[in-house]
Design goal:
Number of domains: 2
Structural class: alpha+beta
Largest sheet: 9 strands, antiparallel
Shape: flat
Helix content: 25-40%
Number of helices: 7
Distance between the termini: 62 Å
Strand content: 25-35%
Length: 399
């Protein structure tokens, strides 16, 4: 069953599908499949939590090692052989040998990276579904709506529920790309590919000082439009914008060259990765002029944030895994609404407590070889969620 309506530029219709309510064996089969997925998520959580602790401690030790060995350079314009193979710290303006060009639009800039971003005006499908039970059947009501938007990727309209009237082109006539300068320096030192990759603070390039490159291209704001009327684009029209990262020369419109701070190993006139005794690699670049202490403080903060993010991901994976593996108990009592709701709450509480305890225990095992005392304290802390859960269980009535 479908209903169609047109609300201005946004078109929408509703589709209702129905299917018989699944039987007990069918739901049990689906639950069994979910249990396998839950087991995989459960095992993945152990691996993620355990390896994350070793990685975090190894990274912290490598940063401490680097801080104790780093040598600040007196000048970035002279290369001292005494620092060959050592971890060095320097700060200065970026420089490149040649500007980056986009001849199709008559654009050039002295920068480390130049990115052309192409968007096409296309139909986009949105869907909003809800399920309900009626006459012993499971019915699904889905509202499909269509709107025209600028998108950087081609939207495949063949997957739309209703392609008629919402057909998109299969490709863009102009492609996006990113150009990278082959030779990037700070003073007399050439940056490695890994350091150049870290220069990714892209800013949109103003096109106000440029002319329209072709008769069929119109400049509007900071975009070049392949459109007869940029104010009222049609499906298939293109707009092109440009972004740059690492300004490497003085520009009358953009200002002076960007400054960066680098910590890496000196190898001749090159700055390359430094391998620490802990097994990590130090190859650090930050925008601006930072001291050695400021750089390593930022690296420690980044390591802490990554560690906590992976801990949260590991706990969530374990919680989801336990929930899926215990879902079978919910399925067994699905026919009794009151019992089903109570069991659902109990299973969620069980998954929460067990996931918290096992996560803390896994983290403590990861610390066992590095910080035994902290590992013991965490192991003791892992008992708390289970103890709290048991304390809330009412004692048996005396007979």
């Amino acid at each position: 069953f479908q209903q169609f309506s047109d609300t201005g530029s946004r078109k929408e219709h509703v589709k209702i599908t129905s299917e018989p309510k699944p039987g007990f064996l069918e739901r049990l089969s689906e639950t069994s499949g979910g249990m396998l997925i839950g087991l995989a998520a459960f095992l993945l959580a152990f691996y993620l939590l355990f390896t994350n602790e070793g990685r975090a401690l190894r990274t912290a030790k490598s940063l401490d090692e680097g801080l104790s060995l780093v040598v600040p350079l007196d000048s970035i314009h002279s290369i001292s052989q005494q620092n060959e193979g050592r971890l060095v710290h320097l700060a200065g303006a970026l420089s490149t040998s040649k500007p980056l060009f986009d001849p199709s639009y008559g654009l050039s800039i002295q920068a480390v990276k130049l990115k052309r971003s192409v968007e096409m005006y296309q139909w986009v499908e949105y869907e909003d579904s809800k399920e309900y039970e009626e006459n012993g059947e499971i019915k699904k009501e889905t509202k499909y709506s269509y709107n025209t938007e600028w998108k950087s990727e081609v939207v495949n309209s063949r997957n739309f529920d209703r392609e008629i009237g919402h057909k998109n082109p299969s490709a863009m006539a102009v492609e996006s790309f990113t150009a990278v300068s082959p030779n990037v320096q700070v003073g007399s030192f050439i940056l490695s590919k890994g350091l150049v990759d870290k220069i990714d603070d892209f800013k949109q390039l103003s096109l106000s000082h440029l002319e329209d490159p072709h008769a069929d291209v119109t400049r509007g704001g900071d975009y070049f439009y392949h459109s007869d009327n940029p104010r009222r684009p049609e499906v298939g029209d293109l707009r092109v914008s440009f972004f740059y990262a690492g300004l490497s020369g003085d520009d009358p419109y953009l200002g002076t060259a960007d400054k960066v701070t680098v910590i890496a190993r000196q190898r001749g006139d090159q700055l390359v990765p430094y391998h620490t005794k802990s097994g990590d690699v130090l190859e650090i670049l930050y925008p601006g002029d930072l001291s050695v202490e400021e750089v390593f403080q930022k690296e420690h903060e980044s390591n802490t944030m990554k560690t906590w993010a992976l801990r949260a991901a590991g706990w969530l994976s374990m919680f989801v895994g336990i929930s899926l593996m215990t879902r079978i108990f919910y399925t067994l009592v699905d026919w009794f609404p009151v019992v089903r709701d109570l069991v659902n709450v109990g299973l969620k509480a069980f998954a929460l407590c067990v996931a918290s305890s096992l996560s803390l225990l896994t983290i403590s095992v990861g610390w066992l070889f590095y910080r035994p005392l902290w590992a013991l304290l965490l192991a003791l802390l892992s008992i708390v969620p289970i103890a709290v859960a048991r304390s809330r269980v009412p004692p048996k009535k005396q007979q």
